[in-house]
Structure formats: structure tokens, C-alpha cells
Amino acid sequence: MATAFFSPTFTLRNSTSIPQSRRRSCLVRSSQASVAVETPSSSTTDLLLQVKDLSAVIAESKQPILKGVNLTVRHGEVHAVMGKNGSGKSTFAKVLAGHPDYEVTGGSVLYKGLDLLEMEPEERATAGLFMSFQSPVEIPGVSNIDFLNMAYNARRRKLGLPELGPIEFYGYVAPKLELVNMKIDFLNRNVNEGFSGGEKKRNEILQLAVLGAEFSILDEIDSGLDVDALQDVAKAVNGILTSKNSVLMITHYLRLLEFIKPTYIHVMENGRIVKTGDITIAKVLEKEGYKAIS
Ligand SMILES: Nc1ncnc2c1ncn2[C@@H]1O[C@H](COP(=O)(O)OP(=O)(O)OP(=O)(O)O)[C@@H](O)[C@H]1O
Asked: What angle do CA 59, 30, 13 make, to 5 degrees?
């Protein structure tokens, strides 16, 4: 499920603070030179996310996974990250979300001008960062609507807005179900409990629509979806895109990128972004595989 960068589930699961030692990064630089792949610069004022030389290891084993990632995202852009299995895509996403399994060892991440790496996962979420995970978690005993209401109110509090009570919130959320083609009774079911794979993915996008995130990371949102569900999910994502928010999608397949048009496609290899371009990259990969660009 998603929480954030606003993945509400993530916030729930990570309600304990991450030790300071796991959160910081800028002091230690990766020993490996990074491959800087900056997207063309327009202006610095519309910068949403700026990742520079980001390195990270698995917290437990200290195994390096990210080895100098560079990425710049501006408002209104859609970025797709592709790459072979095990190249570090999900790790990159989870590090941005503040996942405690990883320790940042170098580099910096600015989000809306703030040092993202100094923020707790909950702070990242309430600052409009949403993350949808490959395998959304189930939360027994918590209904979807209560969960969404809680996450939505957390964001409203952060924005200095009054919270919505259950009735008002129902009025807000019900029309959004249409966006993802979900039946109203999904609101009363426990979060993701007994949901099919496709229903879980739709539920992720419902959360995204409800939370109105500014930066959404969608990790393989297309996996396990049938053709109709893929179109529904893509339509919903397109429906929430504005000139003010941005999306980072991790995917293996051209089919998703034909529905949600990316501004840039990046290829990750061995913990770095090694190539950036347009949809042509995905077409070449589809036809010839990674050997064509390695
Ligand atoms: N918590 C962890 N514990 C042990 N190994 C991990 C952990 N997280 C990531 N890894 C390892 O780091 C490498 C990168 O994993 P990651 O999930 O980021 O790859 P990916 O590019 O998203 O792959 P895929 O396309 O298969 O989803 C893999 O070898 C993986 O086994």
C-alpha cells in the first residue's frame, strides 16, 4: 500500500523513530565515482526533488546497494525508472521513503528545498511524499475508510487545515472510488485484507488520490494487473497529475508507459542511473533487452 511519501501504511508500520545513525548521509561519500545524469535544467524554482550522489547500504549487512544516484525531478514531471532485476530500483524508492532497512552512506536529497534525509518517514509523508509498494500490506482490524481518514487528516493537520469527520470524509472519498473503478464496499473492508493483487494496486492509487500527494513513487504498480485494471490504474494516475505534482514510477514494461506518458525514462544499473532519455529507451529495451543499452 502506499504511504508515503505518503504511504499511509508505511507510516503505520514505521511509527518508531529511525535512529539518527540510520538517517543521515552527507558525511560519508561513496568511494565510487557517480555517473551524473541530470535532466535538462529549466529553473531551480520548480525543483521538487534533487538527489545527488546518493549511496546506501543494507542496514544489517552493510552491503552497498545504491552507489551514487543522481536524479532531478521538477513539478509536473513523470519519471520512470527501469532496470534489470536487482539493480536497486526498489531500494532507491524505499530509501527516499525513509525505510529503516537501509542506511544512507553518502549524498544528499533535497525535497521542496528541505533535507529529506533528516526527516522521519511520517514527516516525509505529511510533506506530501507518497509511496506505493510492490506488495501492499494488509492491516487486519482497520477499515479502509478509517485508515484513509486518519492519513488524510494527518496531512490536513500538517497543512494547517481542519480535520474532516467521518461523514464529511465519506463525501470526499466516495467520488474518488470511481477514479479507480472500486466498489463502495471496499471502504468498509479491512485495509487490503483478502484483496486480490489488482484490488490492492487500485487501493494504492485510491490512497494516492485521497492524499493528494505532491510526489508519488509507484513501485511496479502495473505488476499483476490485467489489461482493464492497468488502464483503470493508469487513468487514475493521469487523473491526479497536475503541473504541481510529480510521479516517479518503477516499471519493467513499456505498456504502462504507453498509458502514463513519462517526461523522462532512467535506466538503473548496479545502484546508479546510467542512462536517461525518452520513451525510445523503453521501446529499445522491450525489443532488444538490456544488452542494447548496457
Ligand atoms: N532488506 C534487504 N535485505 C537483503 N538484501 C536486500 C534488501 N533490500 C535489497 N536487497 C538486495 O539489494 C539488491 C537490489 O534490490 P532491489 O529490490 O532494490 O532491486 P530492484 O531493481 O527493485 O529489483 P526488481 O526489478 O527485481 O524488483 C538485490 O540484490 C536485493 O536482494
From this structure: 25
